[in-house]
Amino acid sequence: MGIAVVTGASSGIGREFALRIGNEEGIEELWAIARRRERLQDLIPQCRARVRVLELDLLRDDSLEKLERLLKKEAPQIVYLVNGAGFGLFGAFEALSLKEQLDMIALNVGALTALTHLCLPYMQRGGRIFQMSSLSAFQPLPFVGVYGAGKAYVLRFSRALNRELRPKKVGVTAVCPGWTKTAFFDRAANSDAVCVYDFFFTPARVVTKALADGKKGRDLSVCGLSVYLKLLLSKVLPHRLIMKLWCLQQKKEGLFGEKRT
Ligand SMILES: NC(=O)c1ccc[n+]([C@@H]2O[C@H](COP(=O)([O-])OP(=O)(O)OC[C@H]3O[C@@H](n4cnc5c(N)ncnc54)[C@H](OP(=O)(O)O)[C@@H]3O)[C@@H](O)[C@H]2O)c1
Q1: Is the dihedral of CA 160, 161, 167, 171 positive or negative?
Q2: How many A from CA of 175 to the centre of ligand 1?
Q3: Low-confidence ranges of the chain (pLDDT < 70)
Q4: Ligand 1: does its nearest atom lie under 6 Å from the Cβ of 146?
Q5: What SS3 class is residue 219?
Q6: What are phi and psi of 237, to 5 degrees?
Q7: Is the pTM of this model over 0.70?
């Protein structure tokens, strides 16, 4: 049985992945994971594949244990794993709650790593893993520091794993979108820490590009010319300068480093 495991399937980019993969030929069952059961149940009539609703809080150890037991029992053939669950917190490190920042690392980094480890034994030749990283992974960004550092982990881990898994013919793609119109901002942007958003992509565009990049065997998926240009700049400009420009754009400081009020 060819199945797809998608976390974050209740909203945004993960949901778009679930809808696209859940209607793909050859995928018999979609394991849709998130905390909001009713949002996952909405997928049932919209997918060609059977949808198995897995209401799991990935910040809980017992959720990972439950998934591990299910995988052992069913021994499915996993064609796709999408690690789409995640959240962001923008703001000054000192001002943000420590608990929330540690939860963000636990979900964006820890749960993603755990899901990858749990699912890999059930993936064979042709399987693909999509990991949600971000444009913020390519350079340090003040006021998005912990979030961006977590996404840098995802990027490095995913590309390294892709190389490691070459003999097994399982591919890993780090998906690195710029700003994308989803519910992400309800939680991430509840202060004016990041106040300028230059351009928004749709989840459909990001996922179309990611699936196409996955098919081409790419370990990195970047959607949109503006995002690609920023990625290139992060490789050629000193990161100190990029941070300066970012702080200027976000009205955190003036040209000569003075703090804006
Ligand atoms: N939107 C952007 O601009 C953007 C840009 C770059 C990267 N990303 C990354 O893309 C990924 C998806 O974000 P999005 O924009 O699609 O946000 P979103 O619409 O808020 O979706 C986040 C998903 O994560 C799930 N989730 C959150 N906490 C969870 C938990 N404890 N256990 C299980 N599932 C949990 C949510 O489901 P429940 O609430 O139902 O549990 C939801 O399905 C994230 O990793 C984000 O960092 C987003």
Answers
A1: negative
A2: 13
A3: 260-261
A4: no
A5: coil
A6: -90, 150
A7: yes
- Per-domain residue ranges for the chain? 2-231
* Residue burial 223-247, b: 16+ Cβ < 10 Å; e: rest: bbeebeebbeeeeeeeeeebebebb
Q: What's the number of CA atoms in the CB half-sphere (13 Å) around residue 81?
A: 27
The CATH code belonging to domain 2-231 is 3.40.50.720
The pLDDT, as a whole number, for residue 193 is 80
Distances (CA, A) of 80 to 28, 116, 128, 212, 250: 12, 11, 5, 14, 37
Question: Distance, CA 15 to ligand 1 centroid (Å)?
Answer: 9
What contacts 255, CB < 8 A, 6 or more positions away? 248
The neighbouring-strand residues paired with 80 are 4, 128
Q: How far is the CA of 259 from the centre of ligand 1 (A)?
A: 32
- Counting from 1 in the atom list of ligand 1, the atom nearest the Cα of 85 is 24
The DSSP letter of residue 106 is I
